[in-house]
Amino acid sequence: MTSEGLPGIDGEAFLQDFLEESEEHLRNVSSYLLTLEQQAAQGEVNEQAINEILRAFHTIKGLSGMIGLQEAEKLSHELESVLRHIRAGRITLDPSVIDVLSQGTRALEAIINTVRDPSAPMPDIQPVLARLPRPVEAGDQPSPSPPASPGQPILDWLARALPPAVVQALDTEDVRRVERAAENGKHIQLAIFTPSREKMAAGVTVNAVREQLSQQAQVIKAVPLIEQVSVNGEEPSAIVRFAFLLASDQKLSQKEGLPELEWSDIKAASPPPITPPPPRPSHDRVSPTVRVDVTRLDRLMELMGDLIRSHHRLEMLWGANGKPRREEEILAGDVLLEMRRQLRRLREAVIHVRMVPLEEVFGRMPLVVRDLSRSSGKQVRLILEGGDTEVDKALADRLLDPLLHLVRNAIAHGIELPEERAAARKPPEATIRISGRPEGDRIIVSVADDGRGVDMDRVAEKARALGWLAQDEPLTPTMALEFLCRPGFSTRDSADMAAGRGVGMDVVWQMVSSVGGQLEMETEPGQGTTFILKLPLTLLIVAVILVQVGPERYAIPRLVVDEIIEISDNEVASVNGREIISLRGQPLPLVRLAETFKVNSQREEPPRYGIVVSSAEGRVALGVDRLLGLREVVVRHFRDPLLSIPGISGATELGDGRPILIVDVPDLLRYERARRSR
Amino acid sequence: MPAILVTDDSPTMRRMIIAALTPLPQAYFGEASTGLEAIEQLALRPYDLLILDLNMPDMHGFEVLAFLSNHPRYATLPVLVLTTRGDADSRRMAKEHGATAYMTKPFRPPELLKTVQQLLATSKAVEKGK
Amino acid sequence: MNANGRKEDVITTAQKSKREPFVLFQIADTTYAIRAHQVRWLEMVEQVTRVPNAPPYVEGVAYSRGQVIPVINLRQRFGYPQVPYTPRSRLIIADVDGRLVAMTVDSAREFVYLPVERFQPPPQVTEGVGGEYLEGVLADEDRLILLLDLPKLLPTDMDTEFAASSWSPMIEGTTTNG
After folding, report:
1. How many angstroms away from the CA of C102 is the closest CA of chain A?
2. Helices A95-116, A365-376: inter-axial angle, 10-degree rounding
3. Closest CA to A593 of A644, A552, A543, A565
């Protein structure tokens, strides 16, 4: 860190800004690199992508310098130079160059990560620097053929059609772009925007207009103009305006939601080209966002929770003395009711602010898979599913490292070389499927490969060698997962570059348990391995149904509840020692919470209500004695190992100081099944 | 009360610059993330100083400089180019395009503050002399 | 346990006549001490919610200062008979290496400075008073003060300490084809 510091400013605040901004740039770089690669395969060079990558490295260089992160400054400087050479044609953009660039990007990511996690080792940038391509010396090789100069007709035509200031601002490349667009049958138009304070106050700024235009057209050039305007015979004054030279498939006008602009057509579209234009890269659609520190959102959520509990206290006070008598009290009741609705909406809004699509994390995977499959000589197809599933931002951030590791692991250990796969009569190209989906109030993220599966014999051998498993003790799949997740376990004797980068399965397990989630593994010899991460979807507030069992109260998340039924005594039948009730003619297992939770209950008769819940384990009715109502509660997930309890995810408190346990239904049902099969 | 327009495409960098300049008494800070936006801001509000990055999307810092120096209305506006490019060419080109001063990033906050104070004092003197 | 080895440890690490702050509490008329810096706050024992299928010494969870905290019944942990709570019963909320835990004790009323070098290693025969969780013993005037080793009181990994009494999701939660 720079020791002189920044006067009057909290250095930590900049570190956070630095991290957020750099990570955003790196994300963009990754996706632009992919675009570059795909287009390079078709012989295209995407200049915009090159410029964006260049600028991202440039910005990271500047910011790293400011916070004194010299390794990042040095590396981003070198990467930036490579891109300048590429742009100038001194380095040819081939797959090996893209490879090196993405390695550099990941090294940069690792360096920046040391700011977030000071215990992480500082990566050695020398190997990456050594691999960076050098520019072709002048004279060594024929210089790239000079770009075809634009034809005279188009220059004449532009000079006639455009204001002189715009023509002056166009360079050869701009003119060629206009020419190409016209050849491809695009409309060429000029749109003029006149800024004003009023427009600015309404958010209509030159940047906003440019953004909007770029969603509907290619912005070939944006040029500021200054014009002398005389109003009502007064002395003329200078007015600044902006001209946008556009190429688009369809003629744009005021109707397209661009009311602030004056339009003039430069050239109407010629008949459409034979080949359809390639879809525009998705990066163009940059949504207007405000970045907010997650800790501030957490604070907001906490306050939200406090508010909900205060409201609940009020409700209890209001209802405490039986029926209200005075008119004001009745009105107060109405206000309370209204407040409850408002709180619900506020809660939803606050939660929504924190949600981001999984795509934000999934989007990082293609580049990693591409790199690893290339360096390992394995062919891998990556399938991403459910990227639109929204999860808490904090969760998405924490998910990146575990996913990266699982993917590296799958390629390094799970997936076989093409020959080996062919010998096993599997397609030479392996598949990794990363998917996300909500289940109840959880999000399930899985990473599945169709590789060789976990070698249980080898795991057992290693575990015995480490003294974790007795010689005659059999290895169960769950134990295998547990061993795999212990630090210091690796079935490979030599540290593997990809999987052994200091991030082990223990990191995956740590992350999952730190957010109150679960990690599971399914593996089949020769068929592949699937790791399943079960994570809380929203971290802090859920709607629950409060129930009473004997003297105790529990909260059941509403999302997993299908319906609530009344149970009459004669309805319960016993089949093979399991209690069954009938729901619309269908048998439904009854699980008495009193029994599962060993509640001291004098009642011998069956529970009066059944909470019908479903999970991957199937559908059951949870038997309870009383229903206490529906509430939105602040969840405190249990983190302490002392409270690692089957079927309980955490607790809440309703304003009376007494914790109420929150039932984790899928976990409870699994526990039930395990208990019964014992 | 000096008004300073800070132009840089990195929001973090803008905040760092403004933080370094907070010791200026009662200064007003405008922000722009692109060259176009800088020109828009300058058109809508009087500024005493422009701090300008070079490598920006759409409109390079040099283009902003060229635009400003071509128009009498902005010709006297002092411009401090603050850029990560420290090579002699960029420095020379910035001067040629009409930059008043040139500093490189990473900058030391006290130095930036001092330079900005000097530029503001000079522009005030020019104003008075007019 | 090697008493001699422990004794040397205690003597060499202690500073000459250095006094440190401790919180004293009673269980079954025995006085225990924990380091004051480990104590976050004290509270009357009010609502403790039982947690099903937890280890027997985990009484449940309590809600205190906005947090849900596991409650350890020290009588149970030390093997004393259970007694009902009284108005003097207290919850001691301690921070053990970043974990917040609450402990139920019969009473807790003293905050004292004790000469740390005078703590002796615990005698070997300390069964029934939580001997295995002690760090040292101090004879202070007419009473014996037992210094609690808090980290020892808390298992850090569930599968070793109470896999038998509880169900660990790691062990049985998988739906594998095994």
Report:
1. 12
2. 120
3. A552
CB contact under 8 A, B113 and A7: yes
Angle at CA of residue A650, ends A648 and A651, nearest 5°:
115
Q: What is the pLDDT of residue B65?
A: 92
Q: Contact, A520 vs C173, CB < 8 A?
A: yes
Which residues partner with C41 through β-bridges? C93
Q: Beta strand pairing status for A578-583 and A586-592? A: antiparallel
Among chain C, residues having any CB pair with chain A shorter than 8 Å are 46-47, 49-55, 58, 60-63, 67-68, 70, 72, 99-101, 154-159, 166-178
Q: How much of chain A exceeds pLDDT 90, in percent?
A: 15
From A7's Cα to the closest Cα of chain B, the distance in A is 6
Residue of B nearest to A70 (CA): B106
Residues of B in contact with A169 (CB under 8 A): 63
Instruction: List chains adjacent to chain A, taking adjacency as at least 3 C-beta pairs closer than 8 Å.
Output: B, C
- Domain residue limits at B48: 3-128
CA dist A30 and A37 (Å) reads 11
Q: What SS3 class is residue C154?
A: coil
Please check whether residue B82 touches A, CB under 8 A: no
Can you tell me the ipTM of this complex?
0.89
pTM over 0.95: no
A656 to C173: CB separation less than 8 angstroms, yes or no: no
Rounded Cα gap, residues A244 and A231, in angstroms = 25
Domains in chain B, number:
1
* Residue range A357-536, CATH number: 3.30.565.10
The enclosing domain of B86 has a CATH number of 3.40.50.2300
Q: For residue A42, how many other CB atoms are within 10 A of its CB?
A: 7
β-pairing, A518-524 vs A430-439, is unpaired
Question: Using one digit for the tens of pLDDT, what is the confidence trace for B10-26?
Answer: 999 998 999 889 888 88
Going by CATH, does the domain composed of A541-677 fall within 1.10.630.10? no
Helix (H) and strand (E) counts in chain A: 21, 23
What is the CATH class of A3-131? mainly alpha
Give residue C171's pLDDT band: very low, low, confident or very high (50, 70, 90). very low
Q: Residue A635 phi/psi, 5° resolution? A: -90, 130
Burial (Cβ within 10 Å: 0-12, 13-18, ≥19) of residue B118:
middle
What is the CATH number assigned to the segment(s) A156-269? 3.30.70
